[in-house]
Amino acid sequence: MRIIVDAFGGDNAPLEIIKGCELAVKAHDVDILLVGKEETIRKVAAENKISLDRMEILDAPDVIAMEDHPNLIRTEKKNCSLAVAMRALAEGKGDGFVGAGNTGATLFGATTIVGRIKGVKRPALAPVMPKMEGKFILCDSGANADCRPEMLVQFGKMASIYAERVLGVNNPRVGLANVGTEDTKGDALRTETFPLMKESGLNFIGNIEARDIPYDACDVVVADGFTGNVILKLYEGVAGALIKKIKGVLTASGKNKIAALMIKKDMKKMAKQLDHNEQGGAPFLGVVKPVFKAHGSSQAKTVSNAIGQVKAFVTAGVIEAIAESVK
Amino acid sequence: MRIIVDAFGGDNAPLEIIKGCELAVKAHDVDILLVGKEETIRKVAAENKISLDRMEILDAPDVIAMEDHPNLIRTEKKNCSLAVAMRALAEGKGDGFVGAGNTGATLFGATTIVGRIKGVKRPALAPVMPKMEGKFILCDSGANADCRPEMLVQFGKMASIYAERVLGVNNPRVGLANVGTEDTKGDALRTETFPLMKESGLNFIGNIEARDIPYDACDVVVADGFTGNVILKLYEGVAGALIKKIKGVLTASGKNKIAALMIKKDMKKMAKQLDHNEQGGAPFLGVVKPVFKAHGSSQAKTVSNAIGQVKAFVTAGVIEAIAESVK
Questions:
Q1: Does the beta carbon of B18 lie under 8 angstroms from any beta carbon of chain A?
Q2: pLDDT tens-digit profile of A58-106?
Q3: B171 Cα distance to chain centroid
């Protein structure tokens, strides 16, 4: 299997990306097509003693910035690493894609260059998120700010297939993110979506409150992309702020510092379970080929994990199953 | 000053409510009008040795449940403690109201029995929330699931006045909860609201991402009631789940338990800053009299704090200032 990787996407590109590919070759037994300025890639690899074994380089002279407008990848920046990588994916030069760059541009490229699965209204971003015990999938977490009820039902279908085939959750419980658990709760979008979810054939367990998401509310949380993005980022923000607060307590005095040493190992284990770097990347579900977005701040480990996720996604036949479900 | 309190609202009513009133009489130097079944109130007070000094009781035979439909307070349950309390407030039998019961019914009563300030489109719920250092106001946090852009601008105005006059924040920074910081980010509601916020005369600092809310993003977070409610509840959910995780670490072994004892005092101080019971209640801004909603799980301390907030709200002339600003 060969994974196409944008070597120039994300805050830590290209070094951490190339390192991540080196890790992935060994950890996941894959070949890599690295896309970006060939000269720079070879120089960075040589300087950092990174082996480019099982990696091929596809030269791309340009780079799209995190803040650039997405449609630049089809106009002025059509030769940026992201656009070149997307075309390579569309042309079958690899089995899937991983990038840590501009999210909007990745979605735009996935939709317009790679293409949607027939019957899919809109691709949706579906990260795997940590909860008290285990994980859940949040879909859509930011691809579509404005949604119609039928889109939300499709997000539930696509994410259920992903949860079942890749996370190994049997008959995933699907919940609609809402402001209360009663059937009639919510805004116009939610009250229109609820009956459609009930008839969808999904294992729909009803509305779920944001308060219950971090516990074991369900396996798939369905949201419009605006609400999903707020959930995704607030999750990260509140957890990060609280951990910072606790670090403050643990370094507040000499006595506290000793206590911190005593619980260090167990705290690290807990932090690891919550770390988004451990999750790797998130797929845009509904695209005809696997397109995975890794966090902009991805380290080598994250990139390698995301590449492993693409392999699992391909092996599990998620795309074929989605195509079948939306026929 | 006399505060009207629903003795039968919330999960811990009437005991914790009556206890809270006893605390408030001393802590905030106020008189109380307790509304609910007089016989039960007197019995509970006697059994628990609670002094009813400076409290008067207004008998109300019925109770509205947390899950009851709000409009019952004007039909079958028009003699529930909440409805009787709202009528008493409208008739001037007290200077403000505190209740920990059914949120929808409290809003419905506030709007239809007590009434809106002239010019206010919709009252909005505005809790004070903790951040890394200090506090911010989230408005609307759940009163209006579907909103128009002008409503969001008014939420910003009302909450700014509250932040300035009660929290003592000079020229409060107002942010629009959104999925990115760029001016053009978001769904239709956000992109239409943004220019109106810019022209509003508020100290509008632009869009803020959910990730930054727990840090020092701004003093007033403006959201539609659906998004605001998701933020409010996810804040509580993520913080609660993480604290539970940490408690797990601190009790995982004998060594960890010793470490826990060493940091106990500082951890408690931190937890206190984050505890919603410390915040008291949240006002429905835009109502002609102060109507405060306390958390359903309120303890005596919460009720007393909420009563103190009503006093501060009245003293600061928040309602008069809002009336002036929406003229």
A1: no
A2: 999 999 998 899 999 999 999 999 999 999 999 999 999 999 999 999 9
A3: 22
Q: Where does B43-199 show beta strands of DSSP type E?
A: 55-59, 96-99, 124-125, 128-130, 135-139, 174-178
Q: Is the pLDDT of residue A279 over 80?
A: no
Answer yes or no: is pLDDT of B273 > 90: no
At B144 the pLDDT is 95
Q: Which region holds residue A136: left if phi is over 0, alpha if psi is between -120 and 50, else beta? A: beta
Distance, in Å, from the CA atom of A164 to the CA atom of A316, rounded to the nearest integer, reads: 10
In chain A, which residue's Cα lies nearest the Cα of B238?
Answer: A214
Interval B298-312 mean pLDDT: 95
- pTM for the predicted model, two decimal places: 0.94
What pLDDT does B277 receive?
A: 67
Side-chain half-sphere exposure of B226, counting CA atoms within 13 A: 21
Query: Amino acid letter at A125?
Result: L
Q: Taking a C-beta distance cutoff of 8 angstroms, is the pair A4, A88 a contact?
A: yes
* Maximum Cα interatomic distance, chain A, rounded to a whole number of Å: 64
Interface contact B251, partner A, CB < 8 A: no
- Pull the structure tokens for residue A275: 């770390």
Tens of pLDDT, residues B115-155 = 999 999 999 999 999 988 889 999 999 999 999 999 999 99
What value does the mean pLDDT take over residues A110-137?
A: 95
Q: Three-state SS for A153?
A: helix
**Would the pLDDT of B47 be above 80?**
yes
Residue type present at position B245: K
What residue of B is the nearest CA neighbor of A238?
A: B214
Q: CB A214 to CB B249 under 8 A?
A: no
The 8 Å CB, 24+ separation contacts for A322-325 are A322/A117, A322/A120, A322/A157, A322/A158, A322/A161, A322/A285, A322/A286, A323/A117, A323/A118, A323/A119, A325/A157, A325/A158, A325/A161
Token duo for residue B312: 């501060």
- Bridge partners, B178 (sequence order): B209
B230/A231 Cβ within 8 A: yes
Strand partners, B282: B293
A73 contact partners, CB below 8 Å, separation of at least 6? A64, A80, A82, A83, A86, A105, A108, A109, A113
Tokens of A318: 């998620």
Q: What is the mean pLDDT of residues B83-107?
A: 97
Per-residue tokens: A219: 């396996």
Question: What's the pLDDT score for residue A277?
Answer: 67
The more confidently predicted of residues A288 and B327 is A288
Report chain A residues whose CB lies below 8 A from the CB of B229: 179, 210
